[in-house]
Amino acid sequence: MRWVLIRHGQTQGNLEHRYIGCRTDEPLCAAGREALRLCRYPAVSRVFASPMRRCIETAAILYPGIRPEIVPDLRECDFGAFEGKNYAELSGRADYQAWIDSGGALPFPGGESRAAFAARCVHAFERLRAQDFREDCALIVHGGTIMAIMERYALPKGGYFDYQVSNGEGFVLNPDGTHERLGMTTFYP
């Protein structure tokens, strides 16, 4: 069986390049909903989603006949003090510059570290994989969630940032770790 990992559709915060994590439960924007409706994704039998509204709405658009099973630990990172802000608003702050200089390795002030976030997401995915499903399944989650899972399981191996995807994009992860990228221009019958 294959895992189809899809990043939620676009939100207003995404349009404004804001850090929208687990503290902001915003919906998809109109453009995000429309973009998802124009694409077709691989067929699956089960859908798992982050509890965030943007993921649940994306699941309903992409797989309308399948009720998503909510997995709380697949939620987005806690961006702490950076939540809801964008680069322009954070520029010049010492804590933001320190985080940038660390390559994103430092914990967000008042939030999660990338290592803790990735461990949480990978552990949640491992619990799903242990159930030994026989049919293809989708995860409707966040960009960071996908990056954490792919860094751990994809072959050939790559780094966390090698697996960045835009809204509505993702990967098909095969049982042997090989994968293919899903783009907004990738269509399936």
What report would you give on this structure?
The chain is an alpha/beta fold. The protein has a single domain, classed as 3-Layer(aba) Sandwich (Rossmann fold). It is 32% helix and 13% strand. The chain has 7 helices and 6 strands. It has helices at 12-15, 30-37, 53-62, 87-90, 94-101, 114-129, 143-153; strands spanning 3-7, 46-49, 69-70, 137-141, 170-173, 179-182. α6 packs across α7.
Assign an overall shape. Answer: globular
Helix-strand pattern: EHHEHEHHHEHEE
Q: pLDDT average, as an integer?
A: 95
The number of helical runs is: 7
Strands of the largest sheet, in order across it? Answer: 3-2-4-1-5-6
What composes the largest sheet?
6 strands, mixed
What would CATH call the architecture? 3-Layer(aba) Sandwich
Number of domain units: 1
What is the strand tally? 6
Helix content: 25-40%
Look at the structure and name the CATH superfamily: Phosphoglycerate mutase-like
- Fraction of residues in β-strands: 5-15%
Kindly identify the CATH topology.
Rossmann fold
Structural class: alpha/beta
Query: For the terminal residues, how far apart are their CA atoms?
Result: 18 Å
Residue runs with pLDDT of under 50 for 5 or more positions = none
Rg, alpha carbons = 16 Å
- By CATH reckoning, the class would read Alpha Beta
